[in-house]
């Protein structure tokens, strides 16, 4: 586990902290012909060596660096095919971490993977999944009749309300699990402050009531999920 953590740390430093925007732009424009692509891989090789701190393990650093080069090069050519550029970005990071994982646990990959899955807290996984998209859809169904009566003449980011709801429910679930109920009150207060100007400018009682009901339902679902989880423990 320690080797895996060290190599992932080296990867994160190399990919996010030691890769200037200038390099990224140059790589996207020139792809395999970009000198910064190979300089980026060299940085990873050096970082892997530093974190391994054993010259005799140079082959580990070389193998992972070559794997990094192949994945990055594939990403440069595949990215233009995606309308949503975040998809190849996350796929790229998943492949990098997966490569490190497979390499570190190659001799007992199946046993390690099975142990990892068997060690998961599945009720917690269920709780986390439920308070995300499933809860958002349930809320949409519950408030469907009310939402049809609200005039949405204000500009808003696409699906911003859904994402805000998911994040706030994850926070509430976390606070309940760690026993910090007072933090939920702070979260409600913070949301009320941010929403105050919108409600004041709209001067709509229906919108105010709709947001209040939506907030209470959202927090209620998260609290109920949290209580069910901790009662299971």
TrEMBL record:
Name of this chain's protein: DUF3307 domain-containing protein
Record keywords: Membrane, Transmembrane, Transmembrane helix
Keyword Transmembrane helix tagged: yes
Spans through the membrane: 36-53, 59-78, 90-110, 122-143, 170-190, 210-230
Matches recorded under Pfam families: DUF3307
Record has Protein transport as a keyword: no
InterPro entries with a match to the protein in the record: Phage_phiKZ_Orf197 (IPR021737)
């Amino acid at each position: 586990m320690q080797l895996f953590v060290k190599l992932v740390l080296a990867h994160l430093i190399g990919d996010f902290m030691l890769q200037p925007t200038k390099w990224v732009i140059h790589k996207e424009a020139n792809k395999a012909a970009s000198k910064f692509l190979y300089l980026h891989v060299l940085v990873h090789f050096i970082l892997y060596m530093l974190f391994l701190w054993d010259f005799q393990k140079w082959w580990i650093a070389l193998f992972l660096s070559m794997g990094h080069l192949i994945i990055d090069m594939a990403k440069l050519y595949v990215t233009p095919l995606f309308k949503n550029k975040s998809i190849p970005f996350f796929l790229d990071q998943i492949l990098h971490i997966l490569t490190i994982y497979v390499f570190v646990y190659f001799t007992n990959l199946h046993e390690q993977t099975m142990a990892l899955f068997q060690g998961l807290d599945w009720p917690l996984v269920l709780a986390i999944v439920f308070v995300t998209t499933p809860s958002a859809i349930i809320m949409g169904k519950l408030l469907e009749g009310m939402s049809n009566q609200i005039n949405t003449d204000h500009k808003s980011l696409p699906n911003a309300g859904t994402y805000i709801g998911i994040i706030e429910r994850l926070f509430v679930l976390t606070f309940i699990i760690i026993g910090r109920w007072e933090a939920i009150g702070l979260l409600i207060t913070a949301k009320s402050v941010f929403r105050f100007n919108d409600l004041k400018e709209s001067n709509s009682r229906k919108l105010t009531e709709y947001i209040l009901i939506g907030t209470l339902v959202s927090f209620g679902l998260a609290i109920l999920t949290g209580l069910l989880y901790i009662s299971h423990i």
